[in-house]
Design brief:
- This is SsrA-binding protein.
- It is found in: Cytoplasm.
- One of its GO terms (biological process) is trans-translation.
- By secondary structure, this protein is of the alpha+beta class.
- Helices cover 31% and strands 30% of the residues.
- The protein is built from four helices and seven strands, in the order E-H-E-H-E-E-E-H-E-E-H.
- It has a seven-stranded antiparallel sheet.
- The relative contact order is 0.23.
- The N terminus is likely disordered.
Length: 159
């Protein structure tokens, strides 16, 4: 009954924000669609996007992805897109209300964790609701990571 899923070429991670989990305490994640132009989709399929310094903002009842970098598609001469333009995120009204409420009332931040293509081949953003970590929290995370790495080495040596 166990079916082995084949690696779907459409379902792949394009960009990942690896620093986000270090800098923010991730409380909740939500999947959102992206409004993209044709050249942006082609550029994403080449896998050169960057979301390290990007964030999401609630403006006018809509949620926007700000400061994400999708390089220009080289074959698209004059019809190309702007690499750092604001991109609208697609969410349900209930999800938008929940996210805007957590940002407004509780002082949370919306941080994109990764951009990927789902099973249908549509570009999605994994958006995290997080609280910024203090310096001592970051040190604690680093200690935990170093200790688990060292523990793995010791167990590997001793068998």
């Amino acid at each position: 009954m166990n079916q082995v899923r084949k690696a779907d070429p459409n379902n792949k991670t394009v960009a990942e924000n690896r620093k986000a989990r270090f800098s923010y305490e991730v409380l909740d994640t939500i999947e959102a669609g992206l409004v993209l132009t044709g050249t942006e989709v082609k550029s994403l399929r080449q896998g050169q996007a960057n979301i390290q310094d990007s964030y999401a903002s609630v403006e006018g009842g809509e949620i926007w992805l700000i400061n994400s970098y999708l390089p220009e598609y080289l074959q698209a001469n004059r019809f190309n897109h702007e690499p750092r333009r604001r991109r609208k995120l697609l969410l349900n009204k209930r999800e938008m209300a929940k996210l805007s409420q957590s940002v407004d009332r509780e002082g949370m931040t919306l941080v994109p964790l990764k951009i990927y293509f789902n099973d249908q081949g549509r570009a999605k953003v994994l958006l995290a609701v997080g609280r910024g970590k203090k310096l001592h929290d970051k040190r604690e995370t680093e200690k935990q990571r170093d200790w688990s790495r060292e523990k793995g080495r010791l167990l590997k040596e001793r068998g």
